[in-house]
Design brief:
Elements (H helix, E strand, L loop, with lengths): L1 H10 L5 E4 L12 E4 L3 H12 L4 E4 L6 E3 L18 E3 L3 H8 L5 E8 L3 H11 L4 E6 L11 E2 L1 E5 L4 E3 L3 E2 H17 L1
Parallel strand pairs: 1-2, 3-6, 6-7
Antiparallel strand pairs: 4-5, 7-9, 8-11, 9-10
């Protein structure tokens, strides 16, 4: 979704920097600056640095919520013994940007939910200081990861809910950019 949104924004004339984790990249619109990252920490550093001097950000990355607390320095050989893996939280990039956000900036987030979808997405909207949140559900066939299609719901600060049908991600990106342009024109 992030690549499709970046392409839509650039096509509309926006100056776009895409901070992107390891993904199979499709064609980027000319002029998009790409900043590849491999960890949540790298993404946090790049995003906070860029956000200070930007008009806003759209956070569509599915950054892992947890990472191994003590990564092994080398391969752990297979054995018959069981293993316990201790996890720790990764940085909350959305919360960090939400705290930095100035009144003249926009911040759009995504919420991938499996339970109490609208309630959890609405809470994220408020907690992260988003202008609107794009809700994805893993319950929708053909939507989300590993598909070229998606089905979204946009929830804005006034609790207005806009439901969209399943469609190609390029069209979903257009819906999101249109929603942002309407927000900015108010």
């Amino acid at each position: 979704m992030g690549i499709a949104i970046a392409n839509e924004l650039a096509a509309d004339g926006a100056d776009v920097t895409l901070v992107c984790g390891p993904v199979y990249l499709r064609e980027l619109y000319p002029g998009i600056k790409l900043l590849p990252v491999t960890t949540a920490e790298d993404m946090l550093i790049n995003c906070t640095s860029l956000f200070e001097k930007s008009d806003g950000a759209i956070l569509s990355a599915a950054v892992a919520d947890f990472r191994p607390a003590s990564p092994a320095p080398k391969k752990i050989k297979k054995s018959d013994r069981s293993m316990t893996l201790l996890l720790e939280s990764t940085p909350d990039i959305a919360a960090a940007l939400g705290k930095m956000k100035k009144s003249n900036q926009f911040l759009i987030g995504f919420a991938l939910e499996t339970d109490d979808e609208l309630q959890n997405a609405s809470k994220k909207l408020t907690d992260k200081n988003f202008d609107f949140v794009v809700l994805n559900s893993l319950k929708d066939k053909g939507a989300g990861f590993s598909f070229d299609t998606n089905k979204i719901t946009i929830i804005d600060r006034d609790n207005k809910i806009s439901n969209f049908k399943l469609k190609p991600k390029t069209e979903v990106a257009r819906d999101i950019v249109d929603h942002l342009e309407n927000l900015l024109s108010c």
